[in-house]
Amino acid sequence: MFSCSRTSSPGSATCTTAAPCQERQNEVAACEVAEKDLQEGMQEGKEQIKELNERFAKYINNTVLNLQRKNKELLAELKKLEKEEFIAVEKAYQKDYQDFQARVDEIQNELVLLKLEKDKLKARLEKECQLKREFDRDFQHLKKSYEDATAGLEKLQCQYKLLEAQLAQLKLVRDQERIYWQQKVDNLQNLDQAESNTLDLEQALRNMRQEYDQMARRNKEELQRYRHKFEENSVPLQKIKKETETYRNMVTDLRLRDEMHKNHLQEKEREISRIKEYNKSLDKKIEAQTTDFQTLVAVKNGLEQELSGYKSLLNQVEKKARDYNAPVCITAPPPPPPKPAEDVNKMCNARSVEQWCVNDVEKLIQLDEVGAPGIVIGVSVNGKEVWSEGDNNYQTVTVSPEWHPAL
């Protein structure tokens, strides 16, 4: 590289050797400047990373911890509201259940009373039916007696008419005989007979008159006896007629009462059917209330499971936050002086890492602004992601491993 002629002068040799030295000095100076720039860039990158770490720690302290506290407050409020809602629902259910139970007990009591009243009415109806059968039997017996009495009365009336006809005939015969004997007596009076014959005739007339008087007396007594017997039979007949009329009125009254009892029983049966239908509707309502209560219990169990999941997530977040809050070794021993090409590459990589960290922090800040309406569920500080729950959606930002403060 360095060549010098033997024939050259000393000055020219000095000139030729001085040029390479100057170039070497320039190269050394350039290397020193590059190394200095590299050291300054690395120092500046470390300061920026340190500043970013401080900003991120401050963000964690100011945002994540506040969100954790808000989560705890919201969970406490959610538990309180859930407890109040459960108590209110339970009170309403207990009230409705007690009202329905009281109504069911009342209806059952009414049903028992109606059954007792039905049994009483049934016993009374059986008694009335038995009385009606006895009355029908007595009525048939009295009807038979009435028919017998009517037949006897008709027979007595026929005998009375026959006796009247016989009496009229006897009166006619008596009058004819009286006229005949009167004429005969008149004819005999005109004759002059002996006194003995006249006496005998008068005696015969007296005897005949006595016989006719006795016959008339017997007929009159028999007629009086028939009349008295007719009167005696007419009194029981009138009594039987009155009793028959009374029994007819009683039958009419019993029929009316029977109709009234039938109508009353029909009304009671309709009321019992209405009560049964109402009991069925109450059973359906109770089943619906029970189904709603079971649904509420299932919802409560689901909420408890979700709350347990939230608690586990919060515990993980707190654990990761505690891991993040652990002391981190930021001051590391300076690396050995690299070669110029490697230093330039590391400086470029440091600048790219710095730019990547700035972009990730901006994304994290934007994520916090986007996720503000929701609830932040967790932040992974030593992992790979920060995630938040907004309005029914999840947003995820992936952070590169080079962003960790320990790097």
TrEMBL record:
The keyword Zinc does not apply. InterPro entries: IF_rod_dom, Intermediate_filament. One of its GO terms (cellular component) is intermediate filament. Residues 35-229, 265-320 form a coiled coil. Residues 44-320 form the IF rod domain. Keywords: Coiled coil, Intermediate filament. It comes from the Eukaryota. The keyword Transferase does not apply. It holds the Pfam family Filament. One of its GO terms (biological process) is intermediate filament organization. GO terms for molecular function: structural constituent of cytoskeleton. This is IF rod domain-containing protein. It comes from Chiloscyllium punctatum (Brownbanded bambooshark). The lineage of its organism: Eukaryota, Metazoa, Chordata, Craniata, Vertebrata.
